[in-house]
Amino acid sequence: MYWQQGxxxxxxxxxxxxxxxxxxxxxxxxxxxxKWMLRAVxxxxxxxxxxxALAATWAQISPGPLSRAHQSLSGATxxxxxxxxxxxxxxxxCLECHADIAGRVxxxxxxxxxxxxxxxxxxxxxxxxxxxxxxxxxLIRWNPTPGAFDHSKTGxxxxxxxVGLACARCHTAAHIAPAQRATISIKDLNRTYLGISNxxxxxxxxxxxxxxxxxxxxxxxFNDWKVVAGPLGRFDHSRTRYPLTGVHQQLACQKCxxxxxDGRPKYVGLSFSTCNACHTDPHRGTFAGTCQSCHNTGGWKxxxxxxxxxRFDHSRTxxxxLGKHADVRCGQCHAGGDFKKPVGFQxxxxxxxxxxxxxxxxxxxxxxxxxxxNVNGFKPALFGVKEHAATAYPLQGxxxxxxxxxxxxxxxxxxxxxxxxxxxxxxxxDEHQGQFARAPYFNQCQQCHDLNGYRPSTFxxxxxxxxxxxxxGGHLATPCNECHRAKTDFAGRGTVxxxxxxxxxxxxxxxxxxxPHQGQFRDRMLRISAGGKEMGCEACHSTETWSDLQRFDxxxxxxxxxxxxxxxxxMDCHKPPNLETRLRNVDFxxxxxxxxxxxxxxxxGQFARAxxxxxxxxxxxxARWRPSLFDHETRTTFxxxxxxxxxRCEACHKNVRLLxxxxxxxxxxxxxxxxxxxxxTGKPERLDKVGALRPGWxxxxxxxxx
Length: 706
Fold this sequence. Notes:
Blueprint: H1 2-10, H2 16-24, H3 35-61, H4 94-97, H5 99-106, H6 124-128, H7 178-181, H8 253-256, H9 305-311, H10 330-333, H11 385-388, H12 404-407, H13 461-464, H14 480-483, H15 509-512, H16 522-525, H17 570-573, H18 595-598, H19 632-635, H20 649-652, E1 655-659, E2 662-666, H21 674-678
């Protein structure tokens, strides 16, 4: 109650006496303060003023509330816990609290050490860990994101299957070494990324239980734990006392490293001085010497011929081992290892089966293998083009370069060597897809091709003239593939394997050429020619050249070309749209028929009637523009008689005016009186260009218009 009274008094809202009365709820009773109150009130007032001032100052200095992790440092009296005073520029004490980070920076290991040296002001910390942003602000800023974090900055790059693992798979409290726990300030170790060793046993169980040391990477890689050798593994067996060679390199480790008495694979103490340490003797002691005398690590069944020849010279027998026979295993001929049993070798068939299934038994040698093969190998066969010439189908032309397997399709024992060859299509596919299956060709390719090559064809222009489409004019110089193209479906897409078209039911022009006139001349194209066929494009054009239009008669149109019009280019009247330079998209029926629709009115409209354009044909024709056909006798009030008939028009008609940027000769008004032209003296007056008297000339009578 008294503290409230003091606050009220200090705030200046109540006097001490009034505040006591109000707080006690008795306005009538005279309540007087004690001596202790009189002494305590001034001190309390000073303290209250200090607190109010401090709160106001803190509100002005602090840029914002601290995050939840630093809530214990809130308040004006805690500023120096993080900030250094008197440093001038911004200076912090981050590493004084975060000693675990400071130790790693000093040791130059971990993520923070990769950012470079941290200055004494420790301003670099605020770059990623910004404070005074509110209680719920996250102090850790990932760049760019936790998932895209570059782990190599920590000093441990993620490789192989480590790439893509969730952070929590490795960064857990269980993986932090006991010695590292004391160096980490954070209480919840599941929320820190510190203290994780980069040793494999930190996360992985040591399957060898310490027998091979802690350096797992001397044998294993990051891609596959079980692969210890080869390109993906790191264990190099060649550095041991028993380097692996031959087929030993392909063996799995557990094939040799069998479990010992303790049930664990043995990697030390293995015997390898002799082959018998791992392998049993299949010969049961019948051969003296070591296994290496006849065998090597390249394969148990592959006996070294060189090693055998040192002990046994096969060339001294009736069948010396030559060619491929030198590489044959002994057991392939000496079945069961019985080397005393006689082996037949007079004919190849004594050992080899007939791979051709009796296709050559009718030959004189009854299909003896040595006729086509030798001991150097079954392939390539000795049967070549020369030998093939003695057969029913000698190889000629391009056939001489064809590989055997192209005709005799390899199928192992089922390979056929007696093939049909009466027709080309017995081997070759009909590329024309039946277009020449009927008479007179019957798919006889030799009528157009020969054995020297499929191209060029032997079909000549002379033979083309015997077809239903005789070539003439420009067609004679047209390449074959311009007309004979791959057929397409209705959408313009090629078929799965298109065939070039050679038979055309429609042989009209538009079968190959598009109608550039878009049907404007359909009636003319449907006319029947002397041969009884529709004329088509040849109603106007010829096969000599597309621009040959001698067959088009302009006199048969609504606008016959006469006079100067005969020398006018088509494009001058038949205007192409969109500033085009060809007549492909021209509407020929839209060409004007009257002079004024093509020619500009050079008279400025002075001869127009009732708002209609000037009719040029009244004075001009297509034969010539000048002289004019204008009849001065009937169409004016000033007939030309006598000497006037020989006067040039421009001698009287001189009234030239500017209309826009052009000069136009106006025929009205023109002087009609003698004195207007000849003057009082009888001499021609001098008129200016607009028909007015020049200065100094006096007009005697009013002028009369024609």
